[in-house]
Amino acid sequence: MAAGGYHLTKTIPIPGDYGWDYLTADTDSRRLYVSHDKEVVVMDLDSGAIVGKVPGSDVHGIAVVRELGRGFISATDPGSVTIFDLKTLAGEGR
């Protein structure tokens, strides 16, 4: 068993050769948001399937505000925040 009682239960491949940064889990909507350099990959937590992507540039952290129906992605290029709709994953600006 790994340190602290944690162990690997499943590996989910995500295509692309980009760098990785942060993960954000939204357990209420059963989604996992994965920062993947040029985009945020959105996955279904139960099936592991990719359900969509939010394009960006040099993306890092993801915050989900369910009460507003919006997500926020920080980016270092050009030092901005992308706002996106949690249902459609469509971006609202940078």
Q: How would you describe this protein?
A:
It is built from no helices and 8 strands. It is an all-beta fold. The radius of gyration is 14 Å and the shape is globular. The model has no long low-confidence stretch (mean pLDDT 89). It has a 4-stranded antiparallel beta sheet, with no helix packed on it. Strands 5-6-7-8 form a 4-stranded antiparallel beta sheet, with no helix packed on it. It has strands spanning 23-26, 31-35, 39-44, 50-55, 59-65, 70-75, 80-85, 91-93. Helix content is 0%, strand content 46%.
Average pLDDT number: 89
* Secondary-structure element pattern, one letter each: EEEEEEEE
Could you give the distance between the termini? 44 Å
SSE-based structural type: mainly beta
Separate helix tally: 0
Biggest sheet: strands side by side, in what order?
1-2-3-4
Oligomer: single chain
Roughly what fraction of the amino acids lie in strands? over 45%
Give start-end ranges of low-pLDDT stretches. Answer: none
Characterize the overall form.
globular
The main pleated sheet reads as: 4 strands, antiparallel
The rounded Rg comes to 14 Å
Overall strand count? 8
Helical content, roughly?
under 10%
Entry summary:
With 94 residues, this protein is mainly β. It is 0% helix and 46% strand.
Key attributes of the depicted protein:
mainly beta; 4-stranded antiparallel sheet; 94 residues
Topology:
Blueprint: E1 23-26, E2 31-35, E3 39-44, E4 50-55, E5 59-65, E6 70-75, E7 80-85, E8 91-93
Antiparallel strand pairs: 1-2, 2-3, 3-4, 5-6, 6-7, 7-8
